[in-house]
Amino acid sequence: MAKDMTLLWGSGSPPCWRVQIALEEKNLQGYNQKLLSFEKGEHKSKQVMEINPRGQLPAFKHGNIILNESYAACLYLENQFKSQGNQLIPEGAADVGMMYQRIFEAQTLAQKIGDVLYYNWKVPEGERHDSAVQRNKEGLKAEMKMWEGYLQGCSGFLAGKSFSLADVIIFPVFAYFFQNGGSEERYPNVAAYFRKLKDRPSIKKTWPPTWSDGRGQEVLKDI
Amino acid sequence: MAKDMTLLWGSGSPPCWRVQIALEEKNLQGYNQKLLSFEKGEHKSKQVMEINPRGQLPAFKHGNIILNESYAACLYLENQFKSQGNQLIPEGAADVGMMYQRIFEAQTLAQKIGDVLYYNWKVPEGERHDSAVQRNKEGLKAEMKMWEGYLQGCSGFLAGKSFSLADVIIFPVFAYFFQNGGSEERYPNVAAYFRKLKDRPSIKKTWPPTWSDGRGQEVLKDI
User: Fold this and answer.
1) For strand A59-62 and strand B59-62, is the pairing parallel, antiparallel, or unpaired?
2) With CB atoms counted within 10 Å of each terminal CB, which end of chain A scores lower, N or C?
3) By CB neighbour count within 10 A (0-12 exposed, 13-18 middle, 19+ buried), where does A33 fall?
4) Class for domain A5-80, per CATH?
């Protein structure tokens, strides 16, 4: 039981979801949690700001130790609970290297998805340009092609022959891509990876509740 | 000796520098290395692309294991050489948590510095707006104030009482801020942290050679 942990989260946010998956994998159930609404602005509420002054979700703490950055939370949980639940850092140097390399490349992937999805939210109306929108789309296509190559002949996991932090961290990003209309046909290796992992217990149990009705808006359908 | 490692790097790049610091701290000297010029476009050269298809520096490999993402390289080196050189992950859970949390918050800091420094390089001429420039500056000021608060009463290290991966990764970002004209007066805690660490052997030995003539352009002087 993980009663000394608290997670404030939002549905469908890859950063929140990866912390939930890591907690399940490390067998840390029973933590305090609260689902908050981005739409209602609850990520800027007092209860969030007290843990995360940046006003972002996840807001996560273990006792008095605060880990709001999702990558930080995942690495911390593996570091502090090495022998509990599933080991999430592979054994061999090659797999360890691949795991870290992919984890950090995925930040570029997530950023490029965000550049397309949130353009109108990030850029004030008077500063918007069709040329930027187009460039962002091309950037995401190139990035997705790179990952499609990485997943050629994939065994089902991103680093080595077992589930690792690379999967904990990156699976939600690919899921987010498809949820927002990304094409399974143009990225068959990514889609195959997605399908292989989507029913894993830690993932299925934490599936974003707002996604239960199927795909969201098809914003990424041209990518 | 680390003859099975190769680092292609550029002077003054915080991502390159942190890998050099990590190598020194882990007592991994004697690696193959080559200083390349961003100005001459050498980061897009064949020798870089063979290791790093993204055409970015650092390009780093250990044997056949490729770690081009600087955070990945640092975490990998600590993971694979735990008992060699200085231990870069603290002992206690509180310090471990603080280390990871700060490391990932620093990505926001680095991004906000980049938003200001590289605006004209990133944004095509016809898409530039003074309002965006101003917003980026305000964003960096707010971020720096946050770090100024974090470093209130700092013992000299970012996480706990000893040098850790947080310092390896974040020191070069603060150094970069000051090198580009950032104010030591407005951020005295950050400046004190910078001065405490700048003569540490691993840092001094790897100081960017192009910085030896003093500060660069004062682009960040208003921040």
Assistant:
1) unpaired
2) N
3) middle
4) alpha beta
Indicate the average pLDDT of chain B: 96
How many C-beta neighbours within 10 Å does residue B9 have?
23
The three-class DSSP label of residue B162 is coil
Strand pairing category for A5-10 and A32-36 = parallel
pLDDT at A215 over 80: no
Fold of B93-211: Glutathione S-transferase Yfyf (Class Pi); Chain A, domain 2 (1.20.1050)
Cα–Cα distance for residue pair A82/A63, rounded to 1 Å: 18
Residue type, B82: K
CATH 2.30.33.40 fits A93-206, yes or no: no
Contact A179, A216 (CB under 8 A): yes
Residues A173, A155: Cα–Cα separation, whole Å = 19
User: What does the pLDDT look like over A31-53, one tens digit per residue?
Assistant: 999 999 999 999 999 999 999 99
Decide the pairing of beta strands B65-66 and B59-62.
antiparallel
Which residues from A are below 8 Å from B103, CB to CB?
69, 72
pLDDT of res. A155: 86
Identify the contact set of chain B against chain A, taking CB-CB distances under 8 A: 53-54, 62-73, 75-76, 79-80, 89, 93-94, 96-98, 100-101, 103-105, 107-108, 124, 126-127, 129, 131-132, 146
Tell me which residue of A123, A134, A182 sits closest to B132, measured CA to CA: A123
